Amino acid sequence: MPDKHFCGADDLGLAITEYASLVKSQEGRVIGFAETERDGVYTQADVNKEGKILMTITGPPPQGESDTLAVARILVTALNARGDDWGMPREVHDGYCDCKAEDVTNPSNQLCIQVVRAIGGDKNVWKSLGKRTTSTTEWTAEEVVRAAEVRLLSKAKRLSRNDRAKVVIALDANRLPAFLMQEAKDSVLGQLASVCKALGFAAVWIIGPRPELSSCLYENTQT
Length: 223
Hints:
six-stranded antiparallel β-sheet
């Protein structure tokens, strides 16, 4: 049965807009996703009969760091849903942090968030987009994994080992519904956790369009 979700963007501390998304599942596995417009962009993904993922994005690509704060807010909401108690993040662009959030009960404890697009130039996903332009690309689960791995490795090269240990990486798949398809999600979670651990990040999350569609890929639980 499809999982329908209707909300105002104020759920995440954003401007109020009408929004709806639909998750299609079969035997408990996600095989489709579609949503109404968010900031002028529509996204959709489906698994075809050959098991490949067709992802469609319509509208202008995100400019610069336009989605940064929205992605950080989704991350913090997901963390709080599991029992954390973070205040809403703010953009800081302070060294290696794009956004920071404070522990509500202990403000000196801060969450440093670095937002990284989950897919870069692969298959010209972003390059082919413009106003009122549609990009449709075909992906295997393995290609989704490799695209995310390249982004993680690229980010790691720009940070010292010491800095990585302080950063929570938010892999921004909030407009990339290929990551929501079950086979791709399972492959990413199964193959990249060890990569994230080796790179030494404090934690890595894959951020979807909603907190409940976001997943923790890796978290350093050592104190």
